[in-house]
Amino acid sequence: xxxETEDTVENIIDQDPELVxxxxxxxxxxxxxxxxxxxxxxADKTKIVIGNHEADSSKLRKDYMxxxxxxxxxxxxxxxxxxxxALSTEIPFDAExxxxxxxxxxxxxxxxxPFIDWIIVFYHRQIYGSASGSExxxxxxxxxxxxxxxxxxxxxxxxxxxxxxRTYPIIFNNNDKDKPQIQDYDPDIYxxxxxxxxxxxxxxxAQHVTLSSIEDFSAEAIDGKxxxxxxxxxxxxxxxxxxxxxxxRKKEIMDEFKVVKE
Length: 262
What we know:
Blueprint: H1 3-15, E1 20-22, H2 32-38, E2 46-48, H3 52-55, H4 58-67, E3 75-79, E4 82-86, H5 98-111, E5 118-122, H6 135-150, E6 155-158, E7 164-167, E8 170-171, E9 181-182, E10 189-191, E11 197-201, E12 218-222, E13 227-234, E14 239-246, E15 253-260
Parallel strand pairs: 1-2, 4-5, 5-6, 6-11, 10-15
Antiparallel strand pairs: 3-4, 7-11, 7-12, 8-9, 13-14, 14-15
């Protein structure tokens, strides 16, 4: 709930999106009202996941979940030829959990759906990136990245760290879980690539995180900028494009990438 947050909402409105994904830690204000008031122009097209700051307060968590009509912190939906799976990093997520079973059934079903060309997963805590993570995030990665590989998840959107970072398409590395296997080294165009692209977009208004180094699996990393990731479909829905657009009058594009399915 800052001036930067207001600029982010304006940036989103300028792109005129059909769908908005909010990746958790929605406000540090301590109450839901401030953030919900700010997003009123886009609230009816917004989907959320719960972050650790929402999970810290049962009232705050309930206020957000009730506003968006969520009975669980995990859910899924289709939009055109895209399938979206929302996960929570803040509840039990191991292989014995209800969330894991839901995710496994959901991904298996929609990976076989002839009307679905793209699968996008979104959740809060970053599981791949150049900012140092925690054991909690490592455990989430070990649980879900193998599922993403098996069911061919195209894009994983994550928050938690206040920066922008995009990986190459990567698959899980059983021999070294901190070093995923890069499937395509092209900096920004991926044709029929295996692996998931993980994008961290924690740039909506909170204070920046500064990176001291960049991981080998990172295709682009930008700190010190506020902005949004704009995703679009082209070529009859067979090409997905992403652009990190900085807040401000110029709306400068700081990063672009393209995924092509032929």
